[in-house]
Design brief:
The protein is of the alpha+beta class. It is built from nine helices and eleven strands. The strands form two sheets. The protein has a six-stranded antiparallel β-sheet. A five-stranded antiparallel β-sheet has the order 1-2-3-4-5. Among the domains are: 93 residues, Nuclear Transport Factor 2, Chain: A; 155 residues.
Length: 370
């Protein structure tokens, strides 16, 4: 009997050793797993997003007043991590006066270099006064800046995020992630040149039209457009929820004006129509809530052009409260901020509120402005 017991001792010892090794492996695995927790990774990534925001403020020549960066989602697997962050900030345009802002410097330099008179001069003075008013507001009043940033990176063996491995993305108007870059921000030199060249082109156009006594398009029905009322209409947000399962289009109708019907996954023209109507553009039997001209982007723009309510513009003449359309696509938005270097928009589907846009736009302006 004792001989049998001695025979099984090596087996019992092997079992005990295996249990110890298994326990050690589990403890080690738990420790490693904890070292790459989503909380740790989001903290590391959020720090980089915060640095990115500071760099962006410098590039835009903005002074950051306050900011909140929130983690909207995070996933990590196979040594890769992907996180989406919401940025909510307020800023000031960081110049001492409107006359110091590059686009205004360009406009004023053109006036100093050229003799302009008559109706063209009156139009130029009105344009400069409008820009000065907006720029003064941007310099003195903190205004929103919102964005959504996606960060993707690699995790090293120590559970740390490789700083150089992180790539950043922003969402375009179609809801697609595209590489984030500061190179799409207009530089001060470019903005000043745009101000000069833009006013030069405006004068040439006015002088040509004056030969036919047609300084600006004439609306079929006279009205005065309050572009700041259109800008301040609001009724949008920066949601994470999508309009329906399987879609990437963001929409949160709880922020919408309940006096209007909304259209699931396709509310952009309906929203811009509400803004334009709030600004003072009159309705009729063709353009009214629920009509095709009200709710379809291409039809809306065609209607407004045909009625003389809007006309083609550029990025430097489409100011806050004016509509714009993604070039070659059926999607419209409303310009809410333009300082000559940076531009922000409001829109529905994708819903956005004071957010940069990243697509090529067709710009428009309204001739009868208060």
């Amino acid at each position: 009997m004792s001989k049998s017991v001695r025979k099984h001792k090596p087996f019992a010892g092997l079992v005990a050793l295996m249990m110890v090794l298994t326990l050690s492996f589990l403890v080690g695995f738990t420790k490693s797993d904890a070292s790459i927790s989503n909380s740790d990774l989001s903290d590391q990534m959020q720090s980089q997003v915060n640095d990115l925001l500071k760099q962006e403020m410098v590039a835009r020549h903005w002074k950051l007043v306050d900011s909140t960066i929130t983690v909207q989602s995070i996933e990590n697997s196979d040594s890769k991590v992907s996180a989406i962050f919401g940025i909510h900030a307020t800023h000031l345009l960081d110049y001492a006066s409107p006359e110091d802002v590059p686009i205004m410097k360009g406009k004023l330099q053109y006036v100093a270099d050229n003799k302009v008179s008559g109706q063209a001069l009156d139009s130029i003075n009105k344009d400069i006064a409008m820009w000065k008013s907006d720029l003064q507001t941007y310099i003195t009043t903190p205004l929103p800046y919102n964005n959504v940033i996606k960060a993707e990176g690699s995790i090293d063996s120590a559970g740390k995020l490789g700083k150089e491995s992180v790539a950043f993305y922003v969402m375009n108007e179609a809801g697609e992630w595209i590489p984030y870059t500061l190179s799409n921000i207009t530089t001060p030199d470019e903005a000043e040149k745009n101000g000069y060249d833009g006013l030069k082109a405006q004068v040439q156009e006015l002088q040509t039209k004056s030969q036919n006594d047609n300084i600006a398009p004439t609306a079929v029905v006279p009205f005065i457009y309050d572009r700041l009322a259109a800008r301040d209409y609001g009724y949008s947000s920066n949601p994470t929820k999508v309009c329906q399962s399987g879609s990437t289009t963001t929409q949160d109708a709880s922020y919408y004006n309940s006096q209007y019907t909304y259209y699931n996954c396709n509310d952009c023209a309906n929203y811009v129509s509400q803004c334009l109507y709030t600004g003072g553009i009159p309705t009729d039997s063709t353009w009214c809530p629920g009509s095709l001209s009200w709710i379809q982007a291409n039809t809306l723009i065609s209607y407004m052009l045909n009625k003389g309510y809007i006309y083609s513009a550029t990025a430097n003449t489409c100011v806050a409260g004016y509509p714009m359309k993604v070039h070659g696509k059926e999607h419209v938005e409303l310009m809410v901020y333009n300082d000559g270097q940076s531009r922000l928009a409001n829109a529905h589907t994708n819903d956005k509120y004071w957010v940069p846009y990243y697509d090529t736009m067709d710009y428009y302006q309204v001739p009868q402005v208060a």
